[in-house]
Design goal:
11 helices; single chain; 6-stranded mixed sheet; alpha/beta; Rossmann fold; 4 domains
């Protein structure tokens, strides 16, 4: 055993005056009285004391000497062989992945980690420093370097589990960078080792893994829940759900899987029995007709609560079907007007160049054989055989007498179900598109349908008009326009619920390579201090005990 302040042992010399004060006895004092008559009538009394009365004074002395010894011992700050004499700098990382919310015996893994960390913080010496990091994307420094236990304990309390899967790799890298600036700083991570990656020890850093045990009972959880409007029919909502379970070997004979419920606007819509949900991985897709906005919920209902409750229910909101305004600019084409007017959630307005809005709106502008003003750039536009030059490139004066579709992007969303095989055009123009444009359909190298439909300003151009199109194209053109309109319907964007994820729901720990395992108890064995409380707490406790014992001894001594 070594001591941080060996000079404190000189304070043990205070035992000398304590002993001297106990050896001093008060001599009887003489006082004059008027007569001794009454004193002589008293029978003689022999003063004899049993052994325990004689030892009581010695016991009081030993109590005070013991208190002095403990006081000097604490001031000397003893260190056991497993403790380091030099001041320590430690970076603690608290894993906040969703599986840390899993409960065992009514206590979550995160609460267990906080309990361990509180014990570590209370065991700090005045010369030790600690930095706290909570994992996340990105990781958060919740308390910078300090030796103040109060600040560390206060910073520890607000740490919460993340709603979605997070990686500890950024937190480890951040801790390694901070440790390199502190010389011999150590890194300790408190985790249940659940993740979708194998962690590696940071370079040139001492890493200690404090493992939090995982619950042993089975967990059923939702690992995916989403809803999206069909691009083919926006009124149709496709709902996807996927469940998983952990520890199937822990299921007993009387174990019953939960049932799965689907609610639309808080109204129960469908129930999947537990027999189907009991599979290791269960998937289900619903197709519902919903025009207005709706709130969709799904939940797992079980007779017995499983360890992780955050993956037992999920909720998403679906937007209503949006109305799309379409402006037709240029010579009137009855066929084009009829195609657009037959579509639901589409408002058609015919206009001229002079009446275009000063600021383009979130609408589709179709320019039929006419070029828009140079300053006019709508968010979405379709140019049917545009003249001159513009965003579409440059029109060549040479015409294509007859053109047949030779190749087209049949897998593209715009051309889904659009069969252009054997389609002829006899009035196509020849264009030289800009390099950024994509070719969606061509006739032996000459573009027929081209544009940029992936950027913020979406545009398409066709090299043919609708005045004398092929009969086959008249059949597939409404499908093409329908795909184009649906691609602009933002209500078709998928809505997915925030869930812990498949890895967290399975509660399956991954091995941590290149890291030494630590004891998962209240205090790792490699860092167990001699005293779990600070020295002033011990002094206060011992002072109370000594005061009570000495008061009792002294009181008995003067009254008997």
């Amino acid at each position: 055993m070594t001591f941080l302040w060996p000079a404190a042992w000189f304070l043990a010399l205070l035992a000398i005056p304590v002993i001297i004060f106990y050896l001093i006895r008060n001599l009887p004092r003489r006082k004059p009285v008027s007569t001794l008559l009454f004193w002589d009538l008293l029978p003689a009394r022999k003063r004899s004391s049993p052994l325990w009365r004689k030892l009581r004074r010695l016991f009081s002395l030993l109590l005070q000497l013991l208190f002095l010894f403990l006081l000097v011992l604490l001031l000397a700050q003893p260190l056991m062989p497993w403790q380091e004499k030099a001041a320590q700098s430690v970076i603690f990382i608290v894993d906040t992945n969703p599986s840390m919310a899993a409960e065992s015996g009514g206590t979550s893994s995160l609460d267990r980690a906080k309990k361990i960390l509180r014990t570590r913080i209370r065991a700090l010496r005045a010369t030790d420093e600690v930095l706290l990091i909570a994992s996340g994307n990105p990781p958060r420094i919740i308390q910078r370097w300090t030796s103040n236990r109060k600040l560390l304990l206060e910073a520890l309390e607000p740490i919460e589990v993340s709603g979605t899967a997070v990686s500890v790799a950024p937190a480890l890298n951040l801790a390694a960078d901070l440790a390199s600036g502190e010389g011999s700083a150590k890194i300790a991570i408190l985790t249940n080792e659940v993740g979708d990656e194998i962690w590696k020890k940071p370079t040139d850093a001492s890493l200690e893994v404090i493992s939090i045990p995982l619950p042993e009972n089975t967990n059923y959880g939702l690992n995916h829940f989403s809803a999206t409007r069909s691009r083919v029919d926006p009124e149709t909502v496709l709902i996807h759900v996927r469940t998983t379970r952990s520890n199937p070997e822990a299921d007993g004979d009387d174990f019953q899987a939960p049932r799965l419920e689907l609610l639309v606007n808080d109204q129960l819509t469908d129930v999947i029995p537990s027999e189907e949900v009991a599979a290791d991985s269960f998937r289900k897709t619903w197709s519902l007709s919903l025009t207005d906005a709706a709130t969709l919920k799904t939940r797992l209902i079980a007779e017995v609560n499983d360890p992780l409750s955050s993956d037992d229910q999920a909720e998403v909101s679906i937007a209503p079907v949006e109305n799309l305004s379409v402006y037709l600019v240029g010579p009137r084409n009855s066929f084009l007007t009829a195609v657009l007017s037959a579509m639901d959630q589409v408002t058609v307005e015919e206009t001229v160049i002079e009446d275009l809005p000063s600021k383009p709106t979130d609408a589709l502008f179709i320019f039929n054989q006419i070029a828009p003003p140079d300053h006019f750039r709508p968010a979405a536009s379709l140019y049917i055989r545009p003249p001159g030059s513009g965003v579409w490139g440059t029109q060549s004066p040479e015409l294509l007498p007859e053109s047949i579709v030779s190749e087209w992007e049949e897998n593209h969303d715009l051309l889904r179900h659009v069969d252009l095989d054997q389609v002829f055009f006899n009035d196509s123009a020849r264009y030289e598109p800009l390099p950024a444009a994509s070719i969606f359909a061509e006739s032996f190298g000459d573009p027929l349908i081209f544009g940029e439909w992936e950027d913020e300003n979406q545009w398409l151009a066709t090299s043919f008009s609708l005045d004398h199109p092929d009969l086959v194209y008249r059949t597939v053109f409404p499908i093409f326009i329908g795909n184009l309109v649906r691609s602009l319907n933002h209500s078709t964007e998928p809505a997915a619920a925030r869930l812990p994820g498949d890895v967290a729901s399975q509660l399956r720990a991954r091995p941590i390579l290149e890291a030494s395992q630590a004891d998962s108890g209240d205090m790792p064995a490699t860092a167990r201090p001699l005293f779990l409380f600070s020295w002033h707490h011990w002094i206060l406790l011992l002072a109370i005990i000594w005061t009570l014992a000495e008061w009792h001894t002294y009181h008995r001594r003067i009254t008997e």
